[in-house]
Amino acid sequence: MAFSSEVLTLDIKEHVAWLWLDRPERKNALGDAFWRDFPDALRVCESAPDVRAVVLLARGPVFSAGIDLQEMRPLLLGDDGSMKSSAADRRALHRQIERMQDAMSSAADCQVPVIAAVQGPCIGAGVDLVTACDIRLCSSDAVFSVRETRMAMVPDLGTLQRLRGIVPEGHLAELVYTGRDIGADRAESIGLVNDVYEDAEALRSGAGKLAGQIAANSPQAVQGSKRLLRLERRQREEEGLAHGALWNTSFLQSADLVEAITAFFEKRPPDFSR
């Protein structure tokens, strides 16, 4: 099954699929093409009989700047920058949130293990993406941020549900409530990543070795183990994702959101005092 994408590149070598976020000119911001193509890429990996592990990584110095707000802006705000709040607008927003959630969940649901190899900033939806992976590695320059609260949003693409099973509750609350950036050492100390590598080259080498170790084991045993681990978490995650989609459909469009998006494009700090 052939795969092509404007924003992703897929290479399969020696039982390992190397899946690249390949939009470096936009800091690998996640837009419409990603939501469409990412699940397709993982289906190709699943259908390839020789693929036993997937490594997700990124071209350029930034792993992902998060959601492409340039693309999302028309769905959230009118042409005049005001809120869109008709029933039809809210239905469209709910459908888009569910589509984005499904794209993220495709990593968690993939039959073969998915290893995220993060270099540079991993912001907002980038964190949603890597927390949907089975294992996370990073280079020493990696920076992670659950950025949504700083953008007047409630995280609704999986971070709240999946990060709870990865880091302790207090660290989860701090990351979500503050939206602060944390570096590679902090990420490793709280369990967000398994290992930190010196640079991007060492990271790719380490990810390849780990994927090779997984690929050397019985595919049936590895995939069966992932299936059982996934079953244990699925119901809780799905309930949380459904609630998150409904919450943001109801409450996302606010004066705070208008201010956050306006400030983002004007490259200034937002003022939520009004």
Describe the structure.
This protein is an alpha/beta fold. The protein is built from ten helices and nine strands. The strands form two sheets. Strands 1-2-3-4-6-9 form a six-stranded mixed beta sheet, sandwiched between helices. It has a three-stranded mixed beta sheet with strand order 5-7-8. The model has no long low-confidence stretch (mean pLDDT about 90).
What's the arrangement of secondary structure elements?
Blueprint: E1 8-13, E2 16-21, H1 32-47, E3 53-58, H2 69-76, H3 87-109, E4 114-118, E5 121-123, H4 125-131, E6 135-139, E7 143-145, H5 159-163, H6 169-178, E8 181-183, H7 184-189, E9 195-197, H8 200-215, H9 219-251, H10 255-266
Parallel strand pairs: 2-3, 3-4, 4-6, 5-7, 6-9
Antiparallel strand pairs: 1-2, 7-8
Helix pairs in contact: 1-3, 3-9
